[in-house]
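hi! just following up on the protien thing from before. the input was this:
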Amino acid sequence: MQPKFTLKKALVAFCLCISGLVNAQVLSTASGTGYLGNFSINNPAPLSISFVIENTTGSAVALTDLSCQLGPFGAVAFPGDPVVTKLFYSSTSISGNYDLSAPGVWAQIGTGAATVPAAVAVTPVITGINFVIPPATQYRFVIEASKGLRFSFTLPITPNTFSAGGLNLKVGNAQVAAQDIGWAGVSPVPAAGNHPAFFGGVATLVSTVPCSGTPAPGNTVSSVPTVCPATNFTLSLQNPTAGSGVTYQWQSASSAAGPWTNIGGATNSTLTTQQGVATCYRCNVTCGANTGTSTPVCVALTPPSSCYCIPPASDCTDNDVITRVRLSTLDNSST
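and the predicted 3d structure came back as:
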């Protein structure tokens, strides 16, 4: 059961002012090097991986959404397969190997559903959990997926800590008590050799103080300016909105002038999606009766000639690249 932490509103507001945590924060491994999600286990049992979130601020925050790397693998995970996810936490098993079945050590705090993407991609797996992390506290989390879980395992991978607004996401060979934080393997107990395993993904945390005023989300930000069909990309917002109670509705249009249409189910602070034609996107961000709209971004469609190899040739670990094209007198080879 999730622990309860109660603070008077005035005290929380004061702590927020002195701690600097006034906005929602997104902790992402996207800026790291070597986070390719190029490892998994060819086993039909659910797989899991651990990471730590540390709150060094003077106020409580809530973990609301989690994304992680999913993708096809071997004979156990294929594009389009349904995925059942579970999120666990522990306040005592902060590093080293873990046993999710250990009574009183691990507690399940969320469940979700996803689909195995066509290629390795950071995919939303848990949404709307609002799990509170008290000030000056670190908890270890384990995300379990019924299939398709991917992580990074081949060093060098850097960094092992991602920070924003007094919050830290610790993965892989970040250590507590001289033991690695990141372990991965078949649930409920990973094999002893599966460390350091590097979680790849995104954790969204928000203040526990209610939002106020009209949100000003700023620009809509796309992870790519142009994309191939059936390839995931992520949309986010330039300015996070302070406080709890904030809601989101992503919209799309054929041009930045509209008309705009709500995207079904797109109600998180970020959106991972695909497109078959060039499309523009924006997000309505609401606090109470006040709504602010982000400045649209338009994502182009990559020409077919540049989409022969999906995923791009930077990931050739599955021998799925095209190395020679012959058509009549045309004969082109490539490494």
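The two ends are 53 Å apart (CA to CA).
The first strand starts at residue 25 and ends at 28.
cheers
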